Amino acid sequence: MKRTLGVCYYPEHWPETQWAEDAARMADIGLTWVRVGEFAWSRMEPEPGRMEWDWLDRAIGTLGAAGLKVVLGTPTATPPRWMLARHPDMLAVDVHGRTRGFGSRRHYCFSHDGYNAESARIVTLLAERYGRSPHVAAWQTDNEYACHDTVLSYSDAARRAFRDWLAQRYQSPEALNRAWGNVFWSMDYASFDEIDLPNLTVTEANPAHWMDFRRFSSDQVARFNRVQTDIIRRHSDAPIAHNYMGRITDFDHFAVGADLDIASWDAYPLGFLSDRLEAPAEHKRRFARQGDPDFQAFHHDLYRAVGRGRWWIMEQQPGPVNWAPHNPDPLPGMARLWAWEAFAHGAEAVCYFRWRQAPFAQEQMHAGLLRPDSAPAPAFHEAAQVAGELAGMDDVEPAAAPVALVFDYASAWAWATQPQGRDFDYFRLVFHLYKGLRRLGLNIDIIRPDTADLSPWRMVLAPGTATLSKPFLAALETYKGVSLIGPRSNSKTETLAIPVPLPPNLPGLACTVARVESLPPDLPVPLTGGGAFTFWREKCEAADVAETTADGWPALIGTGGMRYLAGWPDDAALDRMLSDLCGRAGIPVEPLPEGLRRRDTATTRFWFNYNPEPVTFAGRTLPAAGVLWEPLEP
Amino acid sequence: MKRTLGVCYYPEHWPETQWAEDAARMADIGLTWVRVGEFAWSRMEPEPGRMEWDWLDRAIGTLGAAGLKVVLGTPTATPPRWMLARHPDMLAVDVHGRTRGFGSRRHYCFSHDGYNAESARIVTLLAERYGRSPHVAAWQTDNEYACHDTVLSYSDAARRAFRDWLAQRYQSPEALNRAWGNVFWSMDYASFDEIDLPNLTVTEANPAHWMDFRRFSSDQVARFNRVQTDIIRRHSDAPIAHNYMGRITDFDHFAVGADLDIASWDAYPLGFLSDRLEAPAEHKRRFARQGDPDFQAFHHDLYRAVGRGRWWIMEQQPGPVNWAPHNPDPLPGMARLWAWEAFAHGAEAVCYFRWRQAPFAQEQMHAGLLRPDSAPAPAFHEAAQVAGELAGMDDVEPAAAPVALVFDYASAWAWATQPQGRDFDYFRLVFHLYKGLRRLGLNIDIIRPDTADLSPWRMVLAPGTATLSKPFLAALETYKGVSLIGPRSNSKTETLAIPVPLPPNLPGLACTVARVESLPPDLPVPLTGGGAFTFWREKCEAADVAETTADGWPALIGTGGMRYLAGWPDDAALDRMLSDLCGRAGIPVEPLPEGLRRRDTATTRFWFNYNPEPVTFAGRTLPAAGVLWEPLEP
Amino acid sequence: MKRTLGVCYYPEHWPETQWAEDAARMADIGLTWVRVGEFAWSRMEPEPGRMEWDWLDRAIGTLGAAGLKVVLGTPTATPPRWMLARHPDMLAVDVHGRTRGFGSRRHYCFSHDGYNAESARIVTLLAERYGRSPHVAAWQTDNEYACHDTVLSYSDAARRAFRDWLAQRYQSPEALNRAWGNVFWSMDYASFDEIDLPNLTVTEANPAHWMDFRRFSSDQVARFNRVQTDIIRRHSDAPIAHNYMGRITDFDHFAVGADLDIASWDAYPLGFLSDRLEAPAEHKRRFARQGDPDFQAFHHDLYRAVGRGRWWIMEQQPGPVNWAPHNPDPLPGMARLWAWEAFAHGAEAVCYFRWRQAPFAQEQMHAGLLRPDSAPAPAFHEAAQVAGELAGMDDVEPAAAPVALVFDYASAWAWATQPQGRDFDYFRLVFHLYKGLRRLGLNIDIIRPDTADLSPWRMVLAPGTATLSKPFLAALETYKGVSLIGPRSNSKTETLAIPVPLPPNLPGLACTVARVESLPPDLPVPLTGGGAFTFWREKCEAADVAETTADGWPALIGTGGMRYLAGWPDDAALDRMLSDLCGRAGIPVEPLPEGLRRRDTATTRFWFNYNPEPVTFAGRTLPAAGVLWEPLEP
Ligand SMILES: [Zn+2]
Ligand SMILES: [Zn+2]
Ligand SMILES: [Zn+2]
User: Fold this and answer.
1) Which residues form the Beta-galactosidase trimerisation domain (chains A, B, C) (predicted)?
2) CA distance linking residue B464 with residue B441, whole number of Å
3) Are the C-beta atoms of B251 and B151 separated by less than 8 Å?
4) C326, B518 contact by CB (below 8 A)
5) What pLDDT was estimated at residue B395?
6) Binding residue numbers of A for Zn(2+)
7) pLDDT at A331 over 70
């Protein structure tokens, strides 16, 4: 497969006289893709029903004439102001009950039927017009579902749709009452129409209520997206993508991904480090201009799974962004490193966001490949360098990964609903284990929670998976490799109750979680083997104990292939355990120095130096922000 | 008096086939009491007017047949969903103006007449049916009044009732304007119907407005409760209790207690340490699995006063809870220690919450004596141990305490309304002095603010009492013991104005508070005798000064029996002052090491080790979580 | 000019029998001014249309008879309760959409036409009655515009007025769409009536939308004030003031000031230190009882500019206040020091707030010159001392300042709208530079952003001025002195877009800001000359570089008279740069020890010791809170 570069472009922001020169410069530095259109509804349809396609025809034509391929976005993330006159109740409502108004973007409730119809209407018009365009080589649906906390809406439309969804799922109020345990505080319902949304209750609502509301809300996103993909497929053979955002877990990306051809994500390493990563201040300081060394890789591996092998970066940070608490300038070389790292993880394309920095509106402080005055910004040259390097490289062959790590959106909802301890967050836990694997130099596959065949991997991890799926449990039963399950895995039913018999109920493992405790960060539970559990530990009754805590409880249960981990290990404990388990699984490891990471394709070993200074390791020296590749021994 | 154990049980949560075995196991480990019913309204009355008593008849019968005594709770904390169709406006409204919806518990406004009538109706039905049951040996009204911030409601019902309450209290708007000082910012009212609730004003509302709203809101709780106790007494001779929550000051517990036979409270030592205690991080870390060494004792002494000698623990933490920021597992032995400490302070009964951990709904992560799978949890065995130990003990005789400490809910409202410095909190101040007394090994009585006879005690403390009551002031005037008043005591009128002549206006003490200052924590005012004032200090004009600050102001005023304390002493200053005053009062003290506490009954000295390691003191060694008792010299 | 003292007095708060004695004591200690009336609307007009002037006639008469001059306040900050019956929709609405209710003060929306008419009505009545009173020697409009966040209102009245304002400004929706860049996210409007207020959007609204809403809101304040000044001038020759609050930037003080004769401000040094100053904890601790050594001076210099030379302190803190997080007692001597410092900066009058501490309502914990029992509080004696000292002093002659510092309210709005980094605040930046100048012992003039003649000063600073005005840019072009512009100066258009060509576009300076970055506090950018940039730095293309960062970018651009500063300097860098620039400008400097400050009038050098201990410097020793003056060499 050929690796390609691209860029996001907004012809509607610039005088038409500038388009041809822009297109020529894009082609000149070796870009292949140009994404357009995803926020331009008010220019496609300035008044209800009055379509203006000419400008977009000409824009796509100009780009195509320069040899560029177009990714055409549906503009449904930005319904124009006139839409509100037609559908005054289409706006989402926030958890405090406030209507979320017009004036930015994503101002719609996924459950609003009228807006769903408008979305279908504009997508139909767009697909009819451009579905056979020779220049439109891919599609994007909407933009960054869930961004700005837009999945959970507490509107009347959502309430009505939730009641219908519950009626479908439970068929009778009695069944729902039983499933939720509504007897608990006299919360029984006599009719689905009595059920409100779970916000604004006096104290916490029933966690089953929240869990179903989260499932429902995720389903509404998938439903909304599927309408668009169905329409586009009727008019176009080009592949369809959506651009997911980093560390968003409010809807099931696998469910949406099932309707896509390509998964893509928007990679803003510095913004994410600043605004959505738990890390010590020193870590944040050290990597402020490079990003966390594993955050991008995690998402690369995640979206490779979501896209069933096909994935892109649809928006790549090229310089400072405008939306994080602090917005430093990337270290010179990072715009190149980030792209190469994506390619090493199997990306088909990396598109920088955006071509030229817009001097107006919300993102005027967001850098582009060009400055507002059209002069090249630093990433312009780095993109050109990557394009040049790509030209000289062979096509990619994907590499097998020895380790698989389960990622499950429903578990994120479960623990967001019921963390039990302030520090327990699902993404944080999975990412913590991912980092441990990366520190050992491993290729990792992230896998769906219902994966039914584990044979491709020598080791499988499923930390914090609230409910292990039937296919996964069945696969575990016959699995020959090493598996590490826990903490907190399989500890809930799908309606967020505790199963009896008690967790983890793993096939062939005599282990019962008798008690759990959440712990403040300053109250670690030391392990006899070194390191400690932090934040969370479980007291298990178990037959076969591989390791214990200093206070005498099983810490790692099972001495064969299947292991249950009874707590949240700190780095020291994690590194030790993972090294040991890799040894048993026959996976060679190479512990890496801080900030240095590696990733193999089938033929090539890539090295990435996230440190702000050079690093020397095993005879190689990489400069700050350096990338190195070397052929793998065959 | 015989000491007893009990448990909270929810037959409606479990198959009826399990009830008899549950009852047998309760009896088997020596439990006496079972609390039932307090959240079961939807099962007692599934539809308006359709009563289902059979299951409850059988549940009570089964428990009674096993020799257990039932505490029957009125279910008014959890009105069923159908109630909202009858009374759509019964919900409380929060301080931001948001209606607090159905879906958890305590979803009612105390001022709603319709709901008051429904409450009277269900309690009447319950009392009629079970008032003469041989097994119902006690009652509980509602559940944890005020929990989840439910006393102050900003609903229309509350607004109307508040206006009526004000009209009763002031008779004319002119009188109210004068009392509140409404001339201040042209806030005068021409009619009671012009008066709104004090939330959502542009800047702070008149503190008198807040103070009266808090008084009114407290009265509404007492009124609501009194309706229930009046009904129950018409049908039953069994004593009536309510279960108060820890560190709740939003309503006057003495006022509600006046209508009860027994005060009880719900003791969650680890949850309270984690979520409602000001303490240094190291203190919280050290006692994370044991609870604060004085927090329980304080409430024991408080509810002994509220119950006029008769008090219980209605809910005792048996393991991790589900609602604090972090929820550790108690140290082995603590479920025993906590029960014994309650008995040492005079509890008649200690009931663990709950029998079996429910695997569903909001409290599924709250431990019980049994696990969800009915296997014993650790506290099951500790409860059995306590029962066994109780069996071998003599009955309790209460001990006299040498020291009395005033606790006054109106002062909590005064300083919540007008803290003047961020760190000034009434409970915090009183508890701070309580801890100082406990460190000296003393028995303490907490007393009402209108106590008229102080002769039972050698020393009396009234810190931060905003308005000293007439009876208390009269008693002080002839008091022969040592009294310590202040800081901030008697500094406000009942409508939260500053009295002129200026405070503290103590009988026989020449002292005028000329100025006060609130201080950041890092700005202590050193005392010449050692230690310092923190958070708060007063500059007094005084004739008779026992001790001064390093900057030359009186710190402790009075050299006879009555003393005025002109600031918030730190631990060092407090220990020194209290030791000195105890010496003058003829009270022997025994300074205790950290985490070790003692409490005497008439015949026995109890020792409690709250430390996570053994402690040796004066020849005794107690293990971690250890309890020791020894006969008192007669 | 003669310097005078005064006090704020509320005759309506006290029995009439007390007025004469109060007046006599005021006169006795040498006060000149008494401010009255500004919160007394409910006593002037107890019912709509029923005026009660008698009491105010007598109060003014009593004060006048004692030789005092009256400042009469319009009572429009406190409309009575009956006003709401006439204008139910006059209340402001907060950013969350909640109506801000009656019960404190400032409960009106500046855009409400009905309330504007009521304001005109009461001011007309007041001006007619007292416009020729021999005792009313000055006026105050309203009270502390903007206090309690009252400029930005999200009411229906504001929405309507904003649409009108936009229609006036842009004439067509197309022009507005272009100016705001509404194409960005399909935010185009087809009509002004489609435009809502910018709160409660899904993510941030267009910064241009916010910027215009802030401009509009500021205009509404000026409009409201101008109605009052126009009316008063028709009936009175006495000068008109308004009392501004500290660190308020929500409206343009210069615009309001243009309609006043005198600018005044309310100086609460300890409250401001506690609640509105960014400073290290140790700084706040050290100056907790004295206030920041520069905060008052900054406002003195600001209001001297706003008042075009005529300015007062209308409210001077006399002791602890009631509204800050902590409220310590001022160090003895500070009430004198603060007054003298104001006089040294050119104040005509300093009025203490308030005469007697009110024992009731919101400010009962706010000290006065008298205690609630009429005994003198410490500031009573300090005020008397100042009065005595003033009697012996010559009249003031203002001194020329060598340095001018631009202060621009629109820049505060720009950076509040778009800080780009959490720590970027306009006031903070300007005040940071002001402090650097003060540490060098300089007299400083604060100047308007449209100052057209810079020749009076040897050095001019314009940090963070978002848009440099045409007159200022023209003045810069011919300026012979040293100018220091930046960081972030001239980086925005008036509608908050980035200008192209890129900033700073300074006449005669080859400099382009190619990139900016906001930085966390722990990521400084060291400078080769010592010190560092913190929070903010810019990467510039520049011909003429005076100094660079350690990573090789221009830090200070220009080697002639005009300099551009490419970051936010820390104290070390700032002190070094300012010393150097002063040297080039021929301004002698004298670096001062911590907490010691100086200010010259034309004839006298004043020294102020803000330290809590004595300081010795260049042969002078000042006690804690000490003031020293010495003749300047002619
Ligand atoms: Zn994006
Ligand atoms: Zn409870
Ligand atoms: Zn004021």
Assistant:
1) 401-587
2) 23
3) yes
4) yes
5) 76
6) 109
7) yes
Chain A residue nearest residue C211, CA to CA = A361
The rounded Å distance from CA C632 to ligand 2 centre is: 75
Decide if A209 contacts A217 (C-beta within 8 A): no
C598 touching chain A per CB within 8 A: no
C-alpha C156/C-alpha C141 separation (Å) is 25
Does ipTM exceed 0.90?
yes
What are the tens digits of pLDDT across the range A563-621? 999 999 999 999 999 999 999 999 999 999 999 999 999 999 999 999 999 999 999 99
Q: Helices H, strands E: what count in chain C?
A: 18, 24
Type of residue found at B363 = E
| Identity of the residue numbered C228 | Q
**pLDDT band of C380, cuts 50, 70, 90:** very high
Q: Which amino acid is at B396?
A: V
Structure tokens at A193: 């129409």
**B284 touching chain A per CB within 8 A:** yes
Residue C364 to residue B495: CA distance in whole angstroms: 12
First to last CA, chain B: 19
Q: Would you say C565 and C553 are in contact if contact means Cβ atoms under 8 Å apart? A: no
Whether B118 is catalytic: no
* Mean pLDDT over each residue of chain C, to the nearest integer: 97
pLDDT tens digits, A129-158? 999 999 999 999 999 999 999 999 999 999
DSSP-assigned letters across all residues of B577-634: HHHHHHHHHT-------TTEEEEE-SSEEEEEE-SSS-EEETTEEE-TT-EEEEEPP-
Q: What is the CA radius of gyration of chain C?
A: 25
Q: Domains along chain A?
A: 4-149+221-391 (3.20.20.80), 156-210 (no CATH), 403-585 (3.40.50.880), 596-631 (no CATH)
Parallel, antiparallel or unpaired: strands B69-73 and A627-631: unpaired
DSSP assignment, residue C633?
Answer: P
Measured between beta carbons, the chain B residues lying within 8 angstroms of A192 are none
Annotated binding residues of A, written as ranges, equal 105, 109, 143, 323
Q: Give C524's Cβ-side CA count (13 Å radius).
A: 15
Which residues lie closer than 8 Å to B28 by C-beta, 6 or more apart? Answer: none
The pLDDT score that the predictor gives to residue A392 is: 83
d(CA C65, CA C7) in angstroms, rounded, equals 16
Cα–Cα distance between B524 and B574 in angstroms, integer?
Answer: 14
- Going by pLDDT thresholds of 50, 70 and 90, the confidence category of residue A633 is confident
The residue length of chain B stands at 634
Check CB contact of B499 with chain C, cutoff 8 Å.
yes
pLDDT at B634: 66
Interface check for C86 against chain B (CB to CB < 8 A): the answer is no
Q: Are A500 and B328 a contacting pair at CB < 8 A?
A: no
Instruction: From C264, C354, C240, select the one nearest C314 (Cα to Cα).
Output: C264
Query: Would you say B247 is a known binding-site residue?
Result: no
Q: What are phi and psi of B172, to 5 degrees?
A: -140, 150
pLDDT band at C397 (very low <50, low <70, confident <90, very high): confident
Separation of B306 CA from ligand 1 center, angstroms? 60
With a cut of 90, say whether residue C403 has pLDDT above it: yes
Q: Among the residues of B140-196, which ranges form H helices?
A: 156-170, 173-180
Cβ contacts of C562 within 8 Å, gap of 6 or more:
C476, C479, C482, C483, C485, C506, C507, C508, C509
Element (H, E) at A378: helix A378-391
Return residues with CB closer than 5 A to ligand 2 (ion).
B 266, 315
| Tokens of residue B343, six digits | 């008995």
- Greatest alpha-carbon span in chain B: 76
User: Would residue A172 be called left, alpha or beta, if left means φ above 0 and alpha means ψ between -120 and 50 degrees?
Assistant: beta
Contact assessment for residue B290 and residue B594, using Cβ atoms and an 8 Å cutoff: no
